[in-house]
Amino acid sequence: MSIRMLQMAWRNLGRSKKRTGLALLAIAVGQFALLATNGLMRGYGDNIQAAITGPMIGHIQIHDPNWREERALDLMIEDVNTVLASVTSNPRVESAAARIYCPVLAAPQQEAFMAVIVGVQPKIESNEKGMLSGLESPLETGKVLIGYQLARKMQIQAGQEIAVIGQAVDGYMANALFEVQAIIRCPVELVNLSGIVMDLAQAQDFLAMPNSAHEIVLHLNTNESPGEVAAALAQRPALKHLEVLPWEQLVPELVTVIKSTEFTGYFVLVLVFVAAIAGIANTLMMSTFERMHEFGMLLSLGCRPLRIVALIVLEACLVAILGVALGTLLGYGFADMTQTHGINMATWGGSETSDMGFKGLTIPMNIFPRLQGSDTLVGLVAIMITSLLASIWPTWFAARLEPMEALRA
Asked: Residue 240 burial (CB < 10 Å; 0-12/13-18/19+)?
């Protein structure tokens, strides 16, 4: 391709600015739609993964092998301090939090309500990825925290006392009075709906579970390869009798959702193909018909048909590249403008909610679009292929022109 050919192709595109502009706009809109969709869905997938690997599930969980199915109170991790010491010795483990769960009845006055005791280690759970990450003041000894939805149902406020009644592991009745230190809004839906959060040691005493817990939640220094870390930890003597699972095995349904967000853009890619074919084919075909006389002169002067075909293909590629460039600027501009406040997808259905709950997880609906370099490349390759396909008809027509017939056109 010579500079002269490029100049001729550029000049020919400028002959009908309106038609060329419409073709560019169609391609730019398609590329923008592809980037915007990919960015939104990738941001949504990031939210799901952050919720999964956040306070409730973490990167890895450790339980008794039957705990997840039966949730029985006596399916405990015994000698939990030894297990915690073993897992935290792995340099890739950032934190390990032991927890206790037990259904109870809670009565602020005469009426009793179903609730769940959640025993936690406040110092560990107060970090950024912990269950108590938003707590304003540390949990005090002998006091409890109540999930805001449970507190609303019980009509209870901070400073009041509640009676908690349940069954301990030894089979005896467990009951005590606790002062409510605060009403909390937690990133874990279970706590918001029915949680009575207390110190792990206090829960162990209340339920006759010395040095025991039902669950250990691990957060790693990186999101990469939790499966490898889980497999390595499972081989340690202190964990041989326990179930050690990465988050991908704990919530396979959400893993499928995350993977599906990576392919949503391909549906939009079909629209990009349609827009490109319609825009480029129309532009090239009309341009070819308008230049019949010019092509006839070139052919009569000895220009080879292949050169005319190359010129038309070059025009198609120029339209494609310019359209993709414009759409890419719009797409990255959209992603950049939404990085500060995000896009609240919860308002799209007509009513605003702060988050979405699924299997005890709280998934934020405020999306921060995230783009990758491959998104632009996919659009460019798709448009270029489409441009070549769209140029087949005009080039086939131009290649079959007879010089005399073209001059009489």
From this structure: exposed
Annotate 175-189 with DSSP letters as a single string: EEEEEEEEEE--SBH
CA distance 363 to 359: 10
C-alpha 3/C-alpha 359 separation (Å) is 62
> What tokens does 210 get?
């010395």
pLDDT digit string, tens, across residues 363-388 = 777 788 888 888 888 888 887 887 77
Contact 214, 72 (CB under 8 A): no
Picking from 334, 147, 336, 121, the residue whose alpha carbon sits closest to that of residue 217 is 121
- Claim: this prediction has a pTM higher than 0.90: no
Q: How far is CA 100 from CA 142, 209, 231, 352, in A?
A: 16, 9, 24, 34
Domain boundaries, the chain: 3-52+258-348+356-408, 60-250
pLDDT digits (tens, 9 = 90+) for 247-273: 989 888 877 877 777 777 677 777 666
Cα dist from 227 to 67, 183, 200, 250, 347, whole Å: 20, 36, 28, 11, 36
User: Do 376 and 328 meet the contact criterion of CB atoms below 8 Å apart?
Assistant: yes
Structure tokens that stand for 392 in this block = 């087949």
